[in-house]
Amino acid sequence: MVKVTIVGRVSDGLPLARGLRYWNEENVYLSRYTQQAEFILQEISRGALKASMMTILIDHHCINYLIENGVVYIVLCESTYPRTLAFHYLQDIQKEVEKFDETLLRKITNPYSFVKLDGIIANFSRQYTDTRTQVNLFKLHDNKKQELNIVTEEMCNIFQRKRNSEIMRRLAVTPQLESTIWCSPRLEVIAMKWTPILVTGITSIALLWVSLELQEGCII
């Protein structure tokens, strides 16, 4: 069944709405999946996820998302929930969102403040709860070919790519931090110029001293 729904903005990753939620002790665990759905929204916003439609496998659930006209529609379902129905659900919400003025979506600045959409999401969620209704059975068999165009990914792989990108970013910054030991770029240039000369001079003197000591030893 449909468990968590988020509608967000691609441009800045701002979550706009998530429907009405009724939390109790049995489903508080969904907060963790909500955070992961928000993470997916941020990854889409920064361009890490390119596909316009994707299914992301996570534990015994899956996150399905759809991108249309700068808006991301995300739904968390149990892994046994038909994927075709999940995307029909997202497309129904998309059609309702497109009835709103685009400037309204751009003006929203606070997370989950698009309250007009909350009730719409809640209504569709109830409609898609039972997969055996006549309407849902028709949708289930209506467009099975759509699934061929949907990319499937593991959440753990997305997390790993995120960690790798963070490591590469830190490595790119590290050389700049190392130069600060000289306090200024000018001192660093002077040190880089004269240090090899100084090392060569000291080495030559040391070798000369050792040579003289050996000669004195032979004379004795």
From TrEMBL:
<feature type="domain" description="Longin">
    <location>
        <begin position="6"/>
        <end position="99"/>
    </location>
</feature>
<dbReference type="InterPro" id="IPR010908">
    <property type="entry name" value="Longin_dom"/>
</dbReference>
<dbReference type="GO" id="GO:0000139">
    <property type="term" value="C:Golgi membrane"/>
</dbReference>
<dbReference type="GO" id="GO:0015031">
    <property type="term" value="P:protein transport"/>
</dbReference>
<dbReference type="InterPro" id="IPR044565">
    <property type="entry name" value="Sec22"/>
</dbReference>
<dbReference type="GO" id="GO:0006890">
    <property type="term" value="P:retrograde vesicle-mediated transport, Golgi to endoplasmic reticulum"/>
</dbReference>
<dbReference type="GO" id="GO:0006888">
    <property type="term" value="P:endoplasmic reticulum to Golgi vesicle-mediated transport"/>
</dbReference>
<dbReference type="InterPro" id="IPR011012">
    <property type="entry name" value="Longin-like_dom_sf"/>
</dbReference>
<keyword id="KW-0175">Coiled coil</keyword>
<dbReference type="GO" id="GO:0005484">
    <property type="term" value="F:SNAP receptor activity"/>
</dbReference>
<keyword id="KW-0813">Transport</keyword>
<dbReference type="GO" id="GO:0005789">
    <property type="term" value="C:endoplasmic reticulum membrane"/>
</dbReference>
<keyword id="KW-0472">Membrane</keyword>
<dbReference type="Pfam" id="PF13774">
    <property type="entry name" value="Longin"/>
</dbReference>
<protein>
    <submittedName>
        <fullName>25.3 kDa vesicle transport protein</fullName>
    </submittedName>
</protein>
<keyword id="KW-0653">Protein transport</keyword>
<comment type="similarity">
    <text>Belongs to the synaptobrevin family.</text>
</comment>
